[in-house]
Every structure is written in C-alpha cells, then in structure tokens.
Amino acid sequence: MAGLDKRVGSYEEALAGLTDDMTVIAGGFGICGIPENLIAQIRRMGVKGLTVVSNNCGIDGFGLGVLLEDRQIRKMIASYVGENALFEQQLLSGELEVELTPQGTLAEKMRAGGAGIPAFFTATGYGTPIADGKEVREFNGRKFILEEAITGDFAIVKGWKADHYGNVIYRHTAQNFNPLAATAGRITVVEVEEIVAPGELDPAQIHTPGIYVDRIIQGTFEKRIEKRTVRS
Fold it and tell me: Which pathway is recorded for this entry (predicted)?
C-alpha cells in the first residue's frame, strides 16, 4: 500500500495493529452485508476483551457469532439479540456485557462519531430503561435524551466495489450500517467483491469516499441466508 493506493494483499495486513481491548465497529445487518472474512481474521488473531459495535452479533457459527464462541468479545453494543442462541446465553448469564441501543440511535451514534459530533438529543428511548442515567432536556414541549457518539479503533466494512483509492459502492440492502460504520473508525478496513482501477466508478454512485478508508482488500464471500422460508 503506497500513497493513495489503499489496497492490501492479505487479511493479516488488513487488520495489522488490532490488539486486545480495542473497540471494533462492524457493518452489516444480521448476516447481510457483513465483513465475514475480516471477522474470521479477528478470530484467527485471537485478540480478546473486544468491545464490538454492530446492529447485532451474527448467528451461531457465522459472522460475529464466531467471536462469541472463543470469548473474544467483552462488551457488545447492539440493537437486538436476533437468531444467536449463544449471544442470548452469554447475555443472560452475565458473561457478556451488552448495551442494547435502538437501531436508529445506533446508526446516528456512528454517523455522529464520524462527523466529529460528540453527542446528540433524541426522543427515542425516553421513558424507558434506555434513558436511565442520561441527561433529559425538553424541546418544543417534548422530552429528549442525550446520546453520546461512538467511534472505534477499527471499523470493518463490507462493500461491493471499490477502486484503488478506497472509494466504495455498496449493493442493495447490504448498504445497511456499512457506510455509517466506515466513517467512525480510526482505522477503517473495507473488504469488497471487486476492486477496479481509478476512474471506473461513476462518482455519482459512490457511497463512501476514499477519504474515510484506510485499507481495501478483495475477498470471496459465502453470502449465507439467515432464515429461509419455503412452501411446504
């Protein structure tokens, strides 16, 4: 990787510098648009004590769920437990610290962190346990709670296409939390299905400008379906 060229040749290089007790922000929703190979590399590295920020924690045996198996995650900041039985088990046993956050609030926490905004007020969660211990203010006769922004030591993101400079396009619903996560990492690593030469991407179609991206790697993806329903 040299100059504006963000490409790296291995997953070891992609996550170089990730160590114990860091905060990792991960894109994806369920197992849609997740950086599955970067997650697998975190598992291989064996780092422990991680705080992971993501909409949820994958499923049993895939996605972020594999990091729960090896007890690599100390704290999970997420919106829901989902289809992950191990996540539920570790939450209920107290083995895993979990901070449940409404999806829109979590998305705005990432966006605000990437924009350098330290905190914001939202009505979501007022009058519920979400608001416990948080500052409350009234605007135009309505109560709002103060939520702090989120940033991470690393952000791991899944894109569709990127160029050498790190400009990224996401595909359909795989966009989800990925563009927000990409802005909020001190080091942002994006894995994509295809890397093209500079100038090949339509500038009007780029979702994440390369200024936010530190490393790009091309991978192959399993693209599992979380739950399949068919006619009997």
Answer: Aromatic compound metabolism; beta-ketoadipate pathway; acetyl-CoA and succinyl-CoA from 3-oxoadipate: step 1/2
Encode pLDDT of 138-148 as tens digits: 999 999 999 99
Tell which residue, 43, 95, 33, has the closest CA to residue 87: 95
Rounded to 5°, the CA angle 219-18-103 comes to 75
Tell me: the pLDDT tens digits for 164-208? 999 999 999 999 999 999 999 999 999 999 999 999 999 999 999
Return the half-sphere exposure (C-beta side, CA atoms, 13 A cut-off) of residue 90: 23
DSSP for 76-105 reads EEES--TT-HHHHHHHHHTSSEEEE--HHH
**CA-CA-CA-CA torsion sign (70, 59, 162, 221):** positive
In the chain, how many H helices and how many E strands? 6, 13
Euclidean distance between CA atoms 56 and 69, whole angstroms: 15
Q: What is the pLDDT of residues 58-93, one digit of tens each?
A: 888 899 999 999 999 999 999 998 778 999 999 999
Rounded distance between C-alpha atoms, residue 225 and residue 31, angstroms: 7
Torsion of CA 110, 220, 41, 112, to 10 degrees: -10
3-state DSSP assignment of residue 147: strand
Q: Which residues contact 174 (CB under 8 A, 6 or more apart)?
A: 28, 32, 33, 158, 160
